[in-house]
């Protein structure tokens, strides 16, 4: 086999192997949790307790995204890209940095326009009801 073709072939295989590896890893990570819930549910008669048990094993966040926090992070990533482009790489990365910062500003504004936490929504509804 020609040595010039080994690196491109390995690069293409990496694009297949990594997603499959992540899929298998996530499957085996969740397998024990699913088996545990199934075994415990055999002995529970109360559906409320079963729902509570499933809620314990569920790892997803219950709170919505904080757009203001994400906006600030995105703005500073854009600023970092801009500075890197200005000092080292060139005008293309400066443009990308400005684009990312602009997206961050939009996300930050969206965070202030649309309250997303339960406390913010409750206070917004209470203020509206007072009027």
The CA-CA distance between the termini, in Å, is 78 Å
List low-pLDDT spans.
none
Helix content, binned percent? over 70%
Number of strands: 0
**What's the Cα radius of gyration?**
24 Å
Overall 3D geometry? Answer: flat
Oligomeric state as shown? single chain
Helix count, DSSP H or I runs of 4 or more residues: 5
pLDDT average, as an integer?
77
Output the structural class: mainly alpha
Report on the structure:
The protein contains 5 helices and no strands. The mean pLDDT is 77. The protein is flat and about 65 Å long. Helix 1 runs antiparallel to helix 2 (47-57) and helix 3 (67-89) runs antiparallel to helix 4 (91-113). With 131 residues, it is mostly helical. The relative contact order is 0.08.
Q: Care to give the gist of this entry?
A:
The chain has 131 residues and is mostly helical. It has helices spanning 3-41, 47-57, 67-89, 91-113, 118-130. The protein has two domains: 3-57; 67-130.
Identify the notable features of this structure and list them briefly:
single chain, 2 domains
Helix and strand topology:
Elements: H1 3-41, H2 47-57, H3 67-89, H4 91-113, H5 118-130
